[in-house]
Structures are given as C-alpha cells and as structure tokens.
Design brief:
With 230 residues, the protein is an alpha/beta fold. It has twelve helices and six strands.
C-alpha cells in the first residue's frame, strides 16, 4: 500500500478487512459481495477466516486484524512525512480518538477528522471537500460493515487520497469506548469472546448466531467442492 502513497495521483487504492461477520453479510447481500471483490486489498481478519481459507486449500500467512494492522503500519512507516484523515464514529468519539492517534503516532501527521454520520449528499460532499483539501496520504473510514465499504466504493472517484481503508471499530478502541482483549486471548484467535463480554446486547447476534452460521457455510462449501471433484 505504501507504493500507492508514493504514486499519488494515479488512483485511490481501497483496502478492506474481512472477518466472519463481514463474510456473513456478503453471503446474504450480492451487492456487498461485489463491493468486497472490488477492493484492491482484502485482508483476512480473525481466526475464523484463516481456518475457512485453509479448508479451501488457501494459506493465509498473517492475521490482519485492523486494530493491529493500522498501528503497526504507522510504526513501520514513521518519519516518512505521511499524513492521515480519520472519518467515522460519532461526534463525541472522533475528537478523542484523533487526540489519541496524534499522541501515539508522532511519525505521522493527522491532517483532519470528521464524524461518520453523513446523513445527506450535502454533508457528504462537504466532508469530501474537507478531506481533499488536506491531501492526506491515507483515509481511514470507520463506519462499520457494510456502510464503510460501500461508502468507500461509491466515493473513490471523488477522493484525492492514495489509500482508503475501512477500519471498523478502531476509533472506539482509540477513544477508550471499548478495550482490547488480553494478548493471550488474541493469540488464540478468540478476541470475539472479549467483545461479546463487553457488549453482550450489541454483539450477541453477531457472534452467537453469526459464528455458527459462518461455520455451516464453510462446511457446506467444502462439501460442495468435494462433490464437484468427484
């Protein structure tokens, strides 16, 4: 993705992080599936996606969790003069998250931020003008699935940004609204358990229903592929 930053002006590169929940949404919505397939980078987020890929004979080298990937990107490319714009979360959360990012990643410049409640075309156009005026190298969009990916795809032609990333709930972590799971639990690939414990009402359907549904879809696809081979 850094190559895209260096080639600024050619086109905007899109990057999406997909987990089991994202793929459940894509399975039920062909339009969203097309949006994900249009991404320049579609990165596996979570143990479930890696496991599903292995069943299909695809090896995923790394777990590209957005909450880990973005800070590491900032650290690896620090002091190269890059800048970023933060778009997403609510009006109370985004300035707190922006302040955290400014303090935590001094090698990058925060060019601006805006909440993610773009309720009409007028607000959307004004926000895109704000983003383009600051000329960031990376635009991080945190609106949740599938809103952020569809927003990115729809507005790519209007953005003067080399890289546009859908980063989910990262700003909530940076603002302290939710906390990361202990490192040992993340290494096991079960951070979802921590999320469920923190936000049971919000996450129960996603994990308690969504995870078994994802498992069933993966196993059904595996069985279908075996039948085709025979």
């Amino acid at each position: 993705m850094e190559d895209a930053v260096r080639r600024r002006g050619e086109r905007t590169i899109s990057a999406y992080f997909v987990n089991a929940h994202t793929l459940n949404l894509a399975a039920a919505d062909p339009a969203f599936r097309d949006t994900l397939n249009s991404g320049d980078f579609v990165l596996a987020d979570g143990a479930g996606v890696r496991w599903a890929a292995r069943l299909q004979g695809v090896r995923v080298a790394e777990n590209m969790v957005g909450t880990d990937f973005v800070p590491e990107m900032f650290q690896v490319t620090a002091d190269r003069g890059y800048s970023y714009f933060m778009l997403g979360a609510d009006e109370a959360t985004i300035p707190v998250a922006a302040d955290y990012a400014r303090r935590s990643f001094p090698g990058w410049e925060l060019s601006g931020y805006h909440h993610g409640y773009l309720t009409d075309d007028r607000i959307t156009s004004a926000t895109i003008e704000q983003i383009n005026a600051t000329r960031p190298d990376v635009l991080m969009v945190g609106m949740g699935n599938p809103i952020q990916e569809e927003w990115i795809r729809r507005n790519l032609p209007r953005l003067d940004v080399p890289v546009c990333m859908g980063i989910g709930g990262l700003f909530d972590y940076w603002a302290g609204n939710v906390s990361r799971a202990p490192r040992w639990l993340r290494r096991l690939g079960h951070e979802w358990v921590w999320r469920l414990f923190q936000q049971p009402r919000l996450k129960a359907r996603r994990y308690l229903i969504g995870n078994p549904l994802f498992l069933a879809r993966v196993l059904r696809e595996k069985a279908t592929n075996r039948s085709r081979i025979r």
